[in-house]
Amino acid sequence: MRMRVLHGKNVLITGGAKGIGRGIAMAVASEGANIALHYLESEEAARRTAKELSDFGVKVSLVKGDLARLEDVQVMKETIEQDLGEIHCIINNAGWTQMKSFFKYEPEEWKREVDVCFYGVMNLVYTFMPEMIENNQGKFINIIGDSARTVINISSFLPLHEMALLVS
After folding, report:
1. 14, β-bridge pairs
2. pTM of the model
3. CATH match for 10-98+118-145 among 1.10.260.40, 1.10.3720.10, 3.60.15.10, 3.40.50.720
4. Element of type H or E holding 57
5. Three-class SS of residue 31?
6. What dihedral angle (degrees, nearest 10) is formed by the CA atoms of 24, 139, 72, 147?
7. Average pLDDT per run of 10 along the chain, which is 168 residues long?
């Protein structure tokens, strides 16, 4: 008999309504974990995914929020705690990028990518990690990246938030 280490745990999956995030949510729910399913603009897809997740017999909490806004992340935490209790694991799959070269970005687009992909991570860590550290348990898995672009040169495939980390 296989041991289900996630059984009964509460897992926040950002960007979980569709695509890779949805696949992660399905896999985690199949192991018996309750899911806090985050979305920003994909409410209909999030509702469909939540219905499918509940078929695994787990609890599902839908949480909408812009990860770039600390206030949104704090409200997400309050909602999750009311619906599920404390979070044991965060799988951060949400990100923002465009499929174009850095030099085709407009300055306001740089800001949005950095806000979501860098400050979004900071907002999640700031909001959720103190409790995990205090309880000496929990995991934070960050899965944002840019592998879908074709490698031509460094400016064409590194997203802005990764460039910022390289030079800092």
Report:
1. 92
2. 0.82
3. 3.40.50.720
4. none
5. coil
6. -50
7. 77 94 94 96 96 97 96 98 96 80 79 84 94 90 60 41 40
